[in-house]
Design goal:
By secondary structure, the protein is of the alpha+beta class. It is built from 14 helices and 13 strands. A six-stranded mixed β-sheet has the order 8-10-11-9-12-13, with helices on both faces. A four-stranded mixed β-sheet has the order 3-2-1-7. Strands 4-6-5 form a three-stranded antiparallel β-sheet. A hairpin with a 2-residue loop joins β2 and β3. The chain is elongated and about 120 Å long. 25% of the residues are buried.
Length: 424
């Protein structure tokens, strides 16, 4: 283990980051009882607190809690007796060695040095974060990040003292990681950056480290690999957490797409742009140019499907009856807007309509019979008639089946004979 220089001493290494491992002189030691036993948990407390030791009261609280065993010194005496016996049988303690003295638990054995990886990491991380020189800090941060190979005693995460240390060490690791990745990005050391980011992703599959991985791959010009990593990351985020990529990750995805495909947006963004932002109930209202495009598309489609296609023109005029005074421009404009609302409600969601002139609306109806169009015209009349002042105006509906465009005549257009129009 790093940090051990005195080869004259026997070294007991207790690795608490990631998988628990106890090594004596580079040979693994297996204590009986397993990690959840009282003896093992007592040993881990003693090893972690090292030379300064831990008081008997603190051990009682951490091992037995505030319940029925809070004052059970007898249970602790049994656990400490068994632990000393196990450590002696394992060759860690000799006759004069002890684990408890003067009200404190401490591993005391002449010629034995206890080294805990979590403590070494903590010291290295704090030193790295305090260093001002970027070159020196880079080296120290690299060592600290390499030391963090997993969470602190993950199997005992439910233990109060373990949970607190887990959060503290994770936060310390993230601080070192962010600082180190920042230095590597600024200095263009993308190979190291990729290794560090992927190691972080192995421990914590968070979006922040996904972004760092993509930055490293893009910096190295490995765009195809970056695309695969981006797809893997977005899928992982959705599967694990049910969240969409953040702006930072989407920015990287756009950059990758631009490099590989010449596209600055991914399909998810395009779908969002295509969504209707207005109220989606009722028929679809569009401007005349969009209506023309829709008409051309439907004409092509019905050539294959054989569906019917009808155009309906609805005109509004002022009634000439003497009981109605002259209509002002404002009244007329309000009425034509009300007519548009009536059309929207009367048509189906799949139908399309547009404002055609100052007093007209043009509708495109698919898959109906002519008598169905007449029913819709009647429905429009009824809905419009509910508005105040509607009695001043008359509606005129003209219905005609759409005909295939005349081809080979330059600018194709749909032509109707005057006597084909029906007036409702």
């Amino acid at each position: 283990m790093q940090g051990v220089e005195n080869s004259e001493k026997r070294v007991l290494e207790v690795r608490m980051l990631g998988d628990l491992q106890i090594m004596l002189e580079d040979k693994e030691i297996k204590l009986p009882g397993g990690i959840y036993s009282k003896t093992m948990r007592l040993f881990l407390l003693i090893a972690y607190y090292g030379d300064r030791g831990i008081s008997r009261e603190d051990v009682l609280e951490l091992l037995y809690g505030d319940g029925e065993y809070a004052d059970d010194s007898g249970s602790l005496r049994v656990a400490s007796y068994r632990l000393r016996k196990q450590l002696t049988e394992a060759g860690i303690l000799f006759e004069k060695g002890s684990i408890s003295k003067k009200g404190k638990f401490r591993l005391s054995q002449e010629g034995l040095e206890v080294v805990v990886d979590a403590r070494i990491f903590e010291e290295a991380a704090h030193k790295a974060l305090r260093t001002r020189s970027e070159q020196e800090q880079e080296e120290l941060l690299e060592k600290a990040c390499k030391m963090y190979v997993g969470e602190f005693l993950p199997a005992l995460a439910a233990e109060m003292w373990v949970a607190g240390k887990q959060a503290s060490y994770q936060n310390l690791y993230f601080q070192c990681l962010r600082r180190y990745l920042g230095i590597l990005a600024r200095t263009g050391k993308y190979g190291k950056m990729l290794f560090v980011a992927r190691n972080a992703l192995r421990l914590y599959p968070y979006e922040e480290w996904c972004v760092a991985e993509l930055d490293a791959l893009m910096g190295m010009g490995r765009w195809k690999e970056a695309e695969e990593a981006a797809q893997r990351s977005t899928k992982s985020l959705m599967d694990r957490m049910g969240v969409h990529p953040s702006k930072e990750l989407e920015e990287r995805i756009r950059k990758i797409d631009l490099q590989l495909k010449g596209s600055t947006k991914n399909l998810m963004e395009i779908c969002r742009e295509l969504e209707e932002v207005c109220d989606d109930s009722g028929a679809y209202c569009c401007n005349y140019q969009s209506f023309v495009g829709t008409y051309h598309y439907e004409m092509r489609r019905i050539e294959r499907t054989g569906e019917s296609l009808y155009l309906v023109l609805c005109s509004m005029t002022e009634k000439e009856e003497t009981k109605y005074p002259g209509v002002e421009d404002r009244d007329f404009e309000i009425a034509i807007e009300q007519l548009g609302s009536a059309i929207r409600q009367a048509l189906r969601r799949a139908d399309v309509y547009t404002r055609y002139g100052s007093n007209q609306y043009l509708m495109l109806l698919v898959g109906l019979k002519q008598e169905d169009c007449a029913i819709i015209s009647s429905r429009i009349q009824n809905l419009f008639g509910r508005n105040p002042g509607a009695g001043k105006f008359a509606l005129h509906h003209f219905i005609a089946p759409a005909a295939p465009a005349v081809r080979g005549e330059g600018n194709p257009e749909v032509k109707f004979k005057q006597n084909n129009w029906g007036v409702m």
